Amino acid sequence: MSDYCGRCGRQTADHAGPELTGCARALSLEPPRYCAACRRRMIVQITPTGWTARCSEHGVLTNLHLQN
Ligand SMILES: [Zn+2]
Ligand SMILES: [Zn+2]
């Protein structure tokens, strides 16, 4: 499980129930704003087919394909 919510940046331990469900739903549609591992702001790029979000520490997340 992630340490931080990718949408609002709260610690997932303090973030449960309907709010977390709402964030999880949003994150299925939009890129995360915060790195789930370190809470840095992600550098988000929207592309015609999806998005990429980059953490300077943890690398790139994308909905296009998985990267290490
Ligand atoms: Zn959240
Ligand atoms: Zn990170």
Task: Kindly summarize this structure in a few lines.
This protein has 1 helix and 3 strands; from the N terminus they run H-E-E-E. It has 68 residues and is α+β, with helices and mostly antiparallel strands.
State the end-to-end distance: 17 Å
Cα Rg: 12 Å
The poorly predicted ranges are none
Described by strand count, sense and barrel closure, the largest sheet is: 3 strands, antiparallel
Strand numbers in spatial order across the main sheet: 1-2-3
Give average pLDDT, whole number: 89
Continuous helix count: 1
Number of structurally distinct domains:
1
Structural class: alpha+beta
> Using DSSP, what is the number of strands?
3
Name the overall outline.
flat
- Give, in order, the helices and strands: HEEE
State which percent range the strand residues make up: 15-25%
Instruction: Specify the helix fraction band.
Output: 10-25%
Small molecules (ligands, ions, cofactors) in the structure:
zinc ion
Keywords:
68 residues; binds zinc ion; single chain; 1 helix; three-stranded antiparallel sheet; alpha+beta
